[in-house]
């Protein structure tokens, strides 16, 4: 019976796997584990009372309209405010509200990719992007990144050699997992390559507002019309509302709306109005985002200090300018971070091994540490436990 | 430039069209048009104050947990209550919360269908199902229905002749668009055919709670394990919350969850808790649903009476036992209902022509009339305007 039923699945469904991270997260949910594995916003920073008040206000003001079906492209006023916040070439007409930016990735993959088409991602990259892309069965080509983001020189070489992507995916600010920010020169280079080789750049920016220091570079779409920008309310307001957005050139926005109509009709009306209500209150947003930035900045420093104290030279890591992640590299080549995770969970600490963020899974030595959900004391204890795990054998 | 950019779209995106109904709805949104075209719940029946109270209660009780990321398969307590309400073989483990039941259709199409695979739908059928299916580029085979739903005798003939579907889609209670309810014998017959020919039956039931008269038959899954049941909060609570669900055999629930993870990570956490809160209050639900049923039952009668008064023999229609739609048939074979719609909009009334509900668009004489959103006086005026439109020439 099982064999028969399995045969009925589509080819994609038969080859699809649950993400390693999701499965790992299950293991690390035990209460004694100090988890730096998740990519969750800190619960303390979720604006419960503001959303409670906005919900009452929206339902009082709009009544049944807040609970009724809505247009597939999203609530007009929210599309306007999103386009205005993005600035530059962004228009309300090219803006589509999505069910989180995960859905934006899925819709873009659907409208751009046929099986076998080439997509370029940075290596390593956001796991959810890889999952969404995989459903269209493209050929995913990775281009290595460093502390300044994707190595566009390597990309240019590959393109010159004949690589012909339809789409390129990149997280520009404080990337997941590496925390790297794409340099100004590389943004300009990417835009020029997109124009020259006729591919669409998907510029994902979930973390841009969470900047601890330094100045933001202009987005890639400053220099090319072949760019789709993704944004989300998940990291600044609430991931549980599932409200994200994309801004695309008009010729691309139209098929995206048609795809979204088939996918879920539209994003929840009430949730769009909640996000609209909070984004519209600029003084409140400013204070709220400043509070998150101060909170995360302090935790990032804590984690870095604790890693230095407890692991010393055993780990190298970046000092991200914002976002939610520290990206580490175990200097002892005999330590494999997938094996280290098993030892770590035994010690009561968790992270995500770098292999999870590569389409080829070829990475043994790196690890992603999320610093948002543990306090100073917990981060110190987590680093201490990680150090213990790293001295255990065998961890290869 | 446009030609170049169009070429970059996937084959599916190039062939996808916005639904005719959605485009028509835009035309009929002028304030002077009495629209029976939409399939919207009556605004008066959307429980604004109950959802306002539930939102405050949920946020007070759960705090940040109501706004945080959640499991892809949905909030455990909601999956339990959905399975319990469905009864029979339904289990919480096989239940997945979806972003409306539109998403359930999209996920089922993804995990079951490769291009060219055969899907059977009733003719006519729900337009949103056709859109979701089309994205997987299957071969859609229609089987005609009558006042007792899909003609399973015709299906049995086609299967005996060699048709080999992977999936069959049917709305069992007060179908959209015909208002027909699948008879007991045909349910049993469908279940037997699914077992014999090894296909999955998708039994969609958005309207089942809206029964004006008569007794509900057992669902198809009573007689087969090869059935997925879809449900939704859209028609009994709020479509704008985008909360639906499916209950599937376990071997099928697993790939659906993997597909959903890539599609939108999970359905909005707050919205799931709102629906859970209202569904859990059984006395309130009973009163609330009884009020909707009385309200819609009265409007259905009004529309039928008004059609008889104003159109007489010019239209034949069913008297549905529940749901939101009256299905009409223009008796004058020279009247084409697509052309009639143009004349109708000029008269200030709107409906959906039957061709919109067929994958082959081969229907000239039928029309779907939604009776939920107009009051008695408006329904009478709408029928009067429709009669005027029907006497205009040319309407072919």
Kindly, what is the distance between the CA atoms of the first and last residues of chain A, rounded to a whole number of angstroms? 39 Å
**Could you name the ranges of chain A where pLDDT drops below 50 across 5 or more consecutive residues?**
none
Query: What's the CATH H-level homologous superfamily of the largest domain in chain A?
Result: Type I PLP-dependent aspartate aminotransferase-like (Major domain)
**Biggest interface between chains:** A-B, 84 and 84 residues
Largest sheet of chain A: 8 strands, mixed
Strand content of chain A: 15-25%
How many domains of chain A? Answer: 2
Shape of chain A: globular
Number of strands of chain A: 14
Helix run count of chain A: 14
Overall CATH class of the largest domain in chain A: Alpha Beta
Strands ordered across the widest β-sheet of chain A: 2-9-8-7-6-3-4-5
Structural class determined from secondary elements of chain A: alpha/beta
Rg of chain A, alpha carbons: 21 Å
Instruction: Give the SSE order of chain A as H and E letters.
Output: HHHEHHEHEHEEHEHEEEHHHEEHEEEH
**Percentage of residues assigned to helices of chain A:** 40-55%
Oligomer: homodimer
* CATH architectural group of the largest domain in chain A: 3-Layer(aba) Sandwich
Question: What is the typical, i.e. mean, pLDDT of chain A?
Answer: 93
Provide the CATH topology of the largest domain in chain A: Aspartate Aminotransferase, domain 2
């Amino acid at each position: 019976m099982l064999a028969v039923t399995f045969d009925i699945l589509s080819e994609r469904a038969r080859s699809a796997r649950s993400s390693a991270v999701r499965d790992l997260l299950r293991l690390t949910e035990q209460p004694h584990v100090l988890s730096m594995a998740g990519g969750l916003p800190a619960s303390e920073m979720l604006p419960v009372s503001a959303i409670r008040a906005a919900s009452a206000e929206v339902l009082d003001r709009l009544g049944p309209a807040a609970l009724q079906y809505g247009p597939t492209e999203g609530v007009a006023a929210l599309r306007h405010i999103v386009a205005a916040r993005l600035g530059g070439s962004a228009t309300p007409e090219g803006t589509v509200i999505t069910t989180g930016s995960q859905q934006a990735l899925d819709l873009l993959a659907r409208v751009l990719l046929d099986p076998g088409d080439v997509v370029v991602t940075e290596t390593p990259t956001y796991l959810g992007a890889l999952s969404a892309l995989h459903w269209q069965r493209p050929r995913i080509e990775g281009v290595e990144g460093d502390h300044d983001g994707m190595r566009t020189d390597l990309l240019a070489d590959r393109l010159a050699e004949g690589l012909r992507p339809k789409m390129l995916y990149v997280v520009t600010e404080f990337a997941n997992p590496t925390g790297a920010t794409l340099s100004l020169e590389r943004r300009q280079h990417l835009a020029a390559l997109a124009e020259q080789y006729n591919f669409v750049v998907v510029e994902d920016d979930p973390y841009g507002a969470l900047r601890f220091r330094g100045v933001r570079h202009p987005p890639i779409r400053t220099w090319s019309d072949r760019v789709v920008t993704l944004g989300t309310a998940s990291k600044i307001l609430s991931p549980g509302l599932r409200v994200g957005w994309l801004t695309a050139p008009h010729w691309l926005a139209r098929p995206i709306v048609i795809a979204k109509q088939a996918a879920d009709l539209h994003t929840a009306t009430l949730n769009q109005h909640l996000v609209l209500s909070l984004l519209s209150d600029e003084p409140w947003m400013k204070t709220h985002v400043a509070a998150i930035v101060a909170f995360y900045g302090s935790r990032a420093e804590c984690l870095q200090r604790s890693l230095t104290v407890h692991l010393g030279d055993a780990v190298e890591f970046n000092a991200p300018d914002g976002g939610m992640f520290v990206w580490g590299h175990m200097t002892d080549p005999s330590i494999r971070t997938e094996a280290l995770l098993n030892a770590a969970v035994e010690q009561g600490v968790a992270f995500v091994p770098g292999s999870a963020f590569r389409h080829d899974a070829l990475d043994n030595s790196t690890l992603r540490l999320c610093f948002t959900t543990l306090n100073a004391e917990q981060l110190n204890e987590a680093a201490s436990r990680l150090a213990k795990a790293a001295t255990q054998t065998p961890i290869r």
